[in-house]
């Protein structure tokens, strides 16, 4: 009997050595926070981006309460968004992450969490930005 190889070595690597685990201050105006949950399993992922004035993501961190595939997916996601423009990272598909990690089909929703978290983080940043420019305008 050969056991199915459920996890690609990249998953194991990102699982054993997750990149960019951590938190930024969510009240920092340069930070966007994406907090998403997977209804199927109840796992939760928080992904945060730090954005420069030019709209470029300079840094990213995550905290994931979830399975190994979700942790690995968030780890990959933080690696992929760093150094990219916000519009650019909105095109990152969970299927690309899943492919990169060779996730089995039953683990696709775990990578979905990462795609959702990226989108939510960008949205949060843009909402904060819009509020600060429309709202109380400080004299400049
Ligand atoms: Fe880490 Fe590709 S193996 S992002
Ligand atoms: Fe739920 Fe992986 S089993 S995120």
Distance separating the two termini: 71 Å
Which molecules other than protein and nucleic acid are bound?
FE2/S2 (inorganic) cluster
Number of strands: 3
Helix proportion: 40-55%
CATH class: Alpha Beta
Looking at how many chains there are and whether they match, the oligomeric state comes to: single chain
Uncertain runs with pLDDT below 50, 5 residues or more?
none
String of helices and strands: HEEEHHHH
> If you consult CATH, what is the topology?
Sufe protein. Chain: A
Neighbour order of strands in the largest sheet: 1-2-3
Strand percent estimate:
15-25%
Q: What Rg is obtained from the alpha carbons, in whole angstroms?
A: 16 Å
Please provide a written account of the structure:
This protein has 140 residues and is α+β, with helices and mostly antiparallel strands. It has one domain: Sufe protein. Chain: A (Alpha-Beta Complex). Helix content is 43%, strand content 17%. The protein is built from five helices and three strands, in the order H-E-E-E-H-H-H-H. It has helices at residues 9-16, 68-81, 86-89, 94-100, 108-134; strands at residues 31-37, 44-51, 57-65. A three-stranded antiparallel beta sheet has the order 1-2-3. Strand 2 (44-51) and strand 3 (57-65) form a beta hairpin. Helix 1 crosses helix 2 (68-81), helix 2 (68-81) packs across helix 5 and helix 4 (94-100) crosses helix 5. The chain binds FE2/S2 (inorganic) cluster (2 copies). One FE2/S2 (inorganic) cluster (FES) is lined by residues 10, 14, 76, 79, 100.
């Amino acid at each position: 009997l050969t056991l199915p190889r459920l996890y690609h070595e990249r998953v194991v690597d990102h699982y054993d050595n997750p990149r960019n685990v951590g938190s930024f201050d969510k009240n920092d105006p340069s930070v966007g926070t994406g907090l998403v949950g997977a209804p199927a399993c109840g796992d939760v992922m928080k992904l945060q981006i730090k954005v420069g004035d030019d709209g470029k993501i300079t840094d990213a961190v995550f905290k994931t309460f979830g399975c190994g595939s979700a942790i690995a997916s968030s780890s990959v996601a933080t690696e992929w968004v760093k150094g990219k423009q916000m519009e650019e990272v909105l095109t990152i598909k969970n299927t690309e992450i899943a492919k990169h990690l060779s996730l089995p089909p039953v683990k696709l929703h775990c990578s979905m969490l990462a795609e959702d978290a990226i989108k939510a983080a960008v949205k949060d940043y843009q909402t904060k930005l819009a509020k600060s420019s429309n709202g109380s305008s400080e004299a400049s």
